[in-house]
């Protein structure tokens, strides 16, 4: 919604006309602020928390290696032992294009010979997560894949990404 005011050059504006224009300007600011409040909360002014939990069940497995990045940030590599979690917090950008992905790997020592299991997974995509978990997203990394907690729908963890097949 755009507001356009036209003034004639050289004409006198009465104080009543000026106060009407001021009232319209204030009303426009208030209406614009109200109409964008849902956009603001969805597009990046509230802080988002992403938790990645190592929920492996076999105590003999090696730690889970997690290396998360966005287009602008490299968060470095973390090693998570069983039951540990990695907490990422950020503010999505105002364009609604924030995306984080993680390279994850672990050595499956239950196989003979042990096999490296690895994959790259999108753990936060601005538009997708807003409909699933809002500003707190929980991922459970298990031996069969990555599960996301569906806060707004089923209210349980659902498999989103199975581990890629080993070559």
Automatic annotation (TrEMBL):
Keywords: Secreted, Self-incompatibility, Signal. Its main location: secreted. One of its GO terms (cellular component) is extracellular region. It comes from the Eukaryota. One of its GO terms (biological process) is rejection of self pollen. It is found in: Secreted. InterPro entries: Self-incomp_S1. Belongs to the plant self-incompatibility (S1) protein family. This is S-protein homolog. The lineage of its organism: Eukaryota, Viridiplantae, Streptophyta, Embryophyta, Tracheophyta.
